[in-house]
Amino acid sequence: MISRRLLAPASAAALAAALLVPSGVAQARAGASVSVADMTFTPASVTVGLGETVTWRFPDSMGHTTTSDAGFWDSGTKLNGATYSRAFTSAGTFAYHCSIHPMMHGTVKVPLTSKGTASKGYKLTWATAKGANGITYEVQTRLGSGKWVSLKKGTTGTHAKFDPAKAGKYSVRARTGKGSAKSGWSPSLTVTIS
């Protein structure tokens, strides 16, 4: 038989952990890990899904940063086993560097998602939350190898229905902006309309 005394500390710890994460709040989803050592980001380019987290690990005794080229984030100086994590909640290609060692560069690629069918169209999603504090999104499409055309520009919305009258294979891409700063375009997604 297990003593209630032995259960009490475990129960208290479980209760404390539950209180730290409010009901309905999603916890960060694992995405990718980047080592910042020997004057390089390894791997230099990672791809994560919408809402997934990138964690940079800094094992060196020499300080480094992960700093967005467009001003989306800055870890500050980290070293000696410290980490820095950031959830990527919108689509784009996010270039970054070490502000102490400007020859160090990396990218985080975040594609948008689609849900639907060729005959009924698709719901395209490029962000997990509405744009706030100056954050906006742009979405472009193109039929085959044609010209990119704007589907959404300067929107704070997170998704849209895509069901054009003309059938074919479409490429879709998105990027995130804050004021005049913009991420690069996300990896393109292909959807077929019939």
CATH topology of the largest domain: Immunoglobulin-like
- Proportion of residues in extended strands: over 45%
Whole-number total of structural domains = 2
Shape: elongated
Tell me the name of the CATH class of the largest domain: Mainly Beta
CATH A-level architecture of the largest domain: Sandwich
Average the pLDDT over all residues and give the rounded result: 87
Count of individual helical segments: 1
Main beta-sheet annotation:
5 strands, antiparallel
Give me the CATH superfamily of the largest domain: Cupredoxins -  blue copper proteins
Helices and strands, in N-to-C order?
Answer: HEEEEEEEEEEEEEEEE
Distance between the termini: 65 Å
| Number of strand elements | 16
Helix content: under 10%
Q: Which structural class fits the helix and strand makeup?
A: mainly beta
Note down, in words, how this protein is organized.
There is one protein chain. The relative contact order is 0.16. The protein is elongated. The strands form four sheets. Strands 11, 12, 14, 15 and 16 form a five-stranded antiparallel beta sheet that branches. Strands 2-1-4-6 form a four-stranded mixed beta sheet, with no helix packed on it. It is built from one helix and 16 strands. Mean pLDDT is about 85; it is low at about 1-30. It has two domains: about 25-110, Sandwich (Immunoglobulin-like); about 115-194, Immunoglobulins (Immunoglobulin-like), CATH 2.60.40.10. It starts with a helix and ends with a strand. The chain is mainly β.
